[in-house]
Amino acid sequence: MKPCIEVVAIDCLMVRLFEVIAEANMPWMLAATQQLRGAFGPALVDLVPSYTTLMVHYDLTALSPAEARQRIDRALADLQPQAQGSGKCHVLPVWYDLRVGPELGLLSQRSGLTVDEVIRRHSAHEYQVFALGFAPGFAFMGLVDEALATPRLSTPRKRVAAGSVGIAERQTAAYPVVSPGGWNLIGRTPAKLFDRERDGYSLMQPGDTVRFQAVDHAEFIRLGGDDAPLEAHA
């Protein structure tokens, strides 16, 4: 593996490990994250992993750009993938219903599958958490069944309810807080995805895995879910 190092800013470098998004990337990304944290130590300001890249923000008063590149090269010289299963596995209950997942019908129509089959396929896979971003606690997960892959909405919603579960292309995610959003919504989870009292704030971290578990309306409410129609959050 020959990582490509790109300049993002005067004190920030992008390490590109892959060109294509794939679940098989994650063991390498996690190993690279660990190695780079150790290599930079207190000179590291932030390290942001994504599907194929890691952004390294370092302290320019502690390291020159040339020294930062040297540390990256040394850290990744003999990189080996991290063992699978090192992250946590989360099971998120989801109420799949048109009242809170208005694009369920659209996915059914586009895929040629019944709504029940769309739900079954979405909840049958164990998803990899690739990255956090967009909003606090928002975890980008994949990869969804190709039959369910759907482009983002042409016009994003101004407000999406917290807990809303959606699909964009072959990614899936759950909105941790009320926010704008253009993903295709198919249900809602009562899980608390972002909590300022939680260590790390986010329920999920890169390297974790997630399963969505279909529950009925009664169980959703029992677990503390908000069943207000999407329009009520507009």
UniProtKB/TrEMBL annotation:
Stretches assigned to the Carboxyltransferase domain: 3-204
Transmembrane segment boundaries: none
Protein species of origin: Pseudomonas quebecensis
Top EC class for this record: hydrolase
Classification lineage: Bacteria, Pseudomonadati, Pseudomonadota, Gammaproteobacteria, Pseudomonadales
NCBIfam families xrefs: 5-oxoprolinase subunit PxpB
SMART domains named among the record's database cross-references: AHS1
Single GO MF annotation: 5-oxoprolinase (ATP-hydrolyzing) activity
UniProt KW keywords: ATP-binding, Hydrolase, Nucleotide-binding
The protein, known as: 5-oxoprolinase subunit PxpB
UniProt-listed Enzyme Commission number(s): 3.5.2.9
UniProt keyword Transport present: no
PANTHER family named among the record's database cross-references: 5-OXOPROLINASE SUBUNIT B (PTHR34698:SF2)
Database matches in Pfam families: CT_C_D
